[in-house]
UniProtKB/TrEMBL annotation:
Keyword Manganese: no
Alphabetized GO MF terms: FAD binding; oxidoreductase activity
Signal peptide per UniProt: none
Keyword Signal listed: yes
Protein name, entry field: FAD-binding PCMH-type domain-containing protein
Sorted UniProt keywords: FAD, Flavoprotein, Glycoprotein, Signal
Pfam families: BBE, FAD_binding_4
Organism: Lupinus luteus
Length: 489
């Protein structure tokens, strides 16, 4: 239960000494104090979507602190806000907002079973980002249990810690109990569409043009591109090819959307028949590939058993358009993987270019054209199958090197990837080890995160196999030495 990656559900996977199911806030406090007293590490799980399993497995003695029973959601439409406990899923958040209003929403992810605790603390990326930014840009308060068992809110935790947990990974600094989120405005009906094109139907030209226009479209439009291998049948013959899906959310009606898209991206050939006007809450299901008309109660569904399929995620940021010939090479290579690997390209522009890269720990703002998520899936079990598909993931990632960000090659914390660097969970003292991958997630914000960590958890109780601030140092000496560095406050 609450393990969404079969890669970590095998019988030999490391087991916790205990699983503590937190029914109230005092259970969280007691777990921290007890584990600290006995020298036991804790792993904090809300939705169980950690793509590297770091929230529920470890190679050292540990206990799991399950947050999913703490899932209350208190929506205040009058003040356009809501308190959301860490164990609530994003789907539950969407559902409860919709029960109170059809013109309010919250910017967060596509998968409704994501846990609010981890999803938001890692940044929270979704299709409202060009209009309103990401989840952490819309957090106005929080409650956290610190290393000493104290429950802190925004005022009592102070500006530095409140800054750090909004995108720096809350589990590095304590246990998130709840978030106070700011609701945003949406139209009573939004427009969604999916336009699918294969390589044979000119997908390469369309993908190239998408790079040039997606960030320049009005901020009410979010137009994602999904690349995947499919089987197509022509004249009785079936063959593999790459299909590119352009999937969009528009805050408005079809009659307004069509001229906007057809003016700047006429090659897409968008037609009225491609479009559907539905309430925003229904669009969250559409983006999760549910059929039009699916009851919104589906947002409340949580898998009762661990998923049998396994997956690996990786990420990249692209700052310059990828040439057409390179796109062809990329898609030709993708076509060799029998549908086990796909890419999602997520456009920037709009609000994402207006927010400073140091406003929160999430640094990936102006200068980026789009974010790539690589997702490798497989159903086979066993070490041999796992290694085979992980090698596929790594080789494709290496192939993409010339086309993505450099020095550092940036990565998104929510798409956790141990491949960008890692450390053992015990007594890591070298700043260089953590900096080698911390800068990929946080760029210059890494340094400020380290300083916050040294102040709020100087004995490094909250740690795991990949943590950007998982070491001790003399905070005062470091601060003095880096006093002039940008990003240190």
């Amino acid at each position: 239960m609450h393990t969404h990656n079969g890669r970590f559900s095998y019988s030999e996977a490391p087991k916790p000494l205990a699983i503590v199911t937190a029914l109230n806030e005092s259970h969280v406090q007691a777990t921290i104090l007890c584990a600290k007293k006995n020298g036991i590490q804790i792993r904090i799980r809300s939705g169980g979507h950690d793509s590297e399993g770091l929230s529920y497995i470890s190679d050292v003695p540990f206990v799991i602190l399950d947050m999913f029973p703490l899932n209350s959601i208190d929506v205040d439409i009058e003040n356009e806000s809501a308190w959301v406990q860490a164990g609530a899923t994003i789907g539950q958040v969407y559902y409860q907002i919709a029960k109170k209003s059809n013109v309010h929403a919250f910017p967060a992810g596509v998968c409704p079973t994501l846990g609010a605790g981890g999803h938001i603390s890692g940044g929270g990326y979704g299709n409202l980002m060009r209009k309103y930014g990401i989840s952490v840009d819309n957090v106005i308060d929080a409650k956290i249990v610190d290393v000493n068992g104290n429950i802190l809110d925004r005022k009592s935790m102070g500006d530095d810690l409140f800054w750090a947990i909004r995108g720096g990974g809350g589990a590095s600094f304590g246990v998130i109990l709840s978030w106070k989120i700011k609701l945003v405005s949406v139209t009573p009906k939004v427009t969604v569409f999916k336009v699918k094109k294969t390589l044979e139907e000119g997908a390469i030209d369309l993908v190239y043009k998408w790079q040039l226009v997606a960030t320049k479209l009005p901020e009410d439009i979010f137009l994602r591109v999904v690349h995947e291998v499919v089987n197509v049948t022509q004249k009785g013959n079936t063959k593999k090819t790459v299909q590119v899906t352009f999937i969009a959310l528009f805050l408005g009606k079809t009659e307004t959307l069509l001229p906007l898209v057809n003016k700047q991206f006429p090659e897409l050939g968008l037609k009225q028949s491609d479009c559907n006007e539905i309430p925003w809450v229904n669009s969250t299901l559409y983006w999760y590939n549910a059929p039009i008309g699916t009851p919104i109660e589906a947002l409340l569904d949580v898998p009762k058993e661990p998923l049998s399929s396994s997956f690996k995620t990786m990420s990249d940021y692209v700052k310059k358009p990828i040439p057409k010939d390179a796109i062809k090479s990329i898609l030709d290579l993708l076509n060799q993987y029998d549908g086990h690997l796909k890419m999602e390209w997520n456009p920037y522009g709009g609000k994402m270019y207006e927010i400073s890269s140091s406003e929160t720990p999430f640094p990936h703002r102006a200068g980026n054209l789009f974010l790539i998520e690589y997702l490798t899936n497989w159903g086979e079990v066993g070490v041999e199958a796992k290694n085979h598909y992980l090698n596929i993931s790594r080789s494709f990632f290496e192939f993409m090197t010339p086309f993505v960000s450099k020095t550092p090659r940036e990565a998104f914390l929510n798409y956790r990837d141990i491949g960008v660097g890692g450390n053992t969970p015990s007594n890591v003292t070298s700043i260089d080890i953590a900096k080698s991958y911390g800068t990929k997630y946080f760029n210059r914000n890494f340094e400020r995160l380290v300083l916050v960590k040294s102040k709020v958890d100087h004995e490094n109780f909250f740690r795991y196999e990949q943590k950007t601030s998982s070491y001790r140092h003399n905070g005062h000496a470091w601060e003095k030495a880096h006093k002039g560095d940008e990003g240190v406050k």
